[in-house]
Amino acid sequence: MSGATSRREATCSNRADVILLVPAAARSAAAPLAAPIAAIVKVGMTVEDMDRALAFYTGVLDFTVVSDVEVAGPAYGALTGVFSLRARIVGLRLGDEVIELTEYLTPRGRTVPRDSRSNDRWFRHVAIITSDMATAYARLRVHKVRHASTGPQRLPDWNPNAGGIEAFYFHDPDGHVLEILQFPPGKGEPRWQSREPLFLGIDHTAIVVADTAASLGFDRDALGLRVVGASENYGDEQAHLNNVRGAHLRITTLRADAGPGVELLEYLAPRDGRPYPPDARPNDLFHWQTTVLSARPETTLQALRADQQRDGALVALPDAPGAAALVRDPDGHALQVVGP
């Protein structure tokens, strides 16, 4: 997490997802941006047991279910690269933001590695804004959540962008890392200053990257996200938040015109985080994806894979409007481009 940013509010409807896999080696080039995205629609993750996950997200974190579908058939297998899949997909809303949980009923993928650390490059989280850190943390303790931080941390005032922010990392039942975060007065969007409800919405999703410049070539130069904030975070508080000794992060925040932000977390120290598994598939439990909306998805894809030798057509599912594609950024994180 980093400092305060603002965004223009807009409304974006959820879309059924159609995915085309492009190799994880994708890198942006200096191609001109012809179709910047209109919105970050949602963040998704793969879960092992949907009923268990829903009990956690609705019962502990106050999300509400907005959609619940089951999908199967050769088209879905072809577009995900997961043969003979059957999956249950549930949309959950908190405030203005939506997350999407997918359970692969068949075939099952790999679990999140138990020895994962916050500087491994498959790490990511969503930042859930709370109106009262002490009450939120107490609720998580009652429900016996597994800590990822040693406890809530208040970032120091010497850091102008992050000073006064309180944050805490924890795990959901599948091992995904989530963050609760409280902004002090004067930081964050005005709506994050509300004193109720306890959980207000999602400010951003954060991903670990190896090199900020390479990631900006993908997210800013090709995708069209705007850089709206930057910070260097280090010290005891940051080390205990990330639970990584000597953590020193370069944090860059990007946004579209609507939806949550994306934070790039580059560990300047320690630099021993492990790379994203090159054979990762969407049914693995460490799979996350960010869904973005483009008015001209094929043009957006051309910009994203400008230096690729392999092209692919957008795929349409028989029961879904529009089309979409799943590409991977320089570190292997999945990005789903959805078109009208």
- Return Rg in Å: 19 Å
CATH class: Alpha Beta
CATH topology grouping: 2,3-Dihydroxybiphenyl 1,2-Dioxygenase, domain 1
* Structural class category: alpha+beta
Largest sheet: 9 strands, mixed
Helix content range: 10-25%
Low-confidence segments: 3-32, 307-312
Run of helices and strands: EHEHEEEHEEEEEHEHEEEHEE
CATH superfamily: 2,3-Dihydroxybiphenyl 1,2-Dioxygenase, domain 1
Q: How many beta-strand runs?
A: 16
Categorize the overall geometry. globular
Mean pLDDT: 87
Number of helices: 6
Report, as a whole number of angstroms, the end-to-end distance.
Answer: 32 Å
Note down, in words, how this protein is organized.
There is one protein chain. The protein is an alpha+beta fold. It has one domain (39-338): 2,3-Dihydroxybiphenyl 1,2-Dioxygenase, domain 1 (Roll), CATH 3.10.180. It has helices at residues 50-59, 74-80, 133-142, 212-222, 236-242, 297-304, and strands at 39-47, 64-72, 86-94, 97-106, 124-130, 146-147, 153-154, 166-171, 177-182, 199-209, 226-234, 248-255, 261-269, 288-293, 324-328, 334-338. The strands form two sheets. Strands 5, 6, 7, 8, 9, 10, 11, 12 and 13 form a nine-stranded mixed β-sheet that branches. The protein has a seven-stranded mixed β-sheet with strand order 2-3-4-1-14-16-15, with helices on both faces. The protein is globular. Residues 3-32 and 307-312 have low confidence and may be disordered.
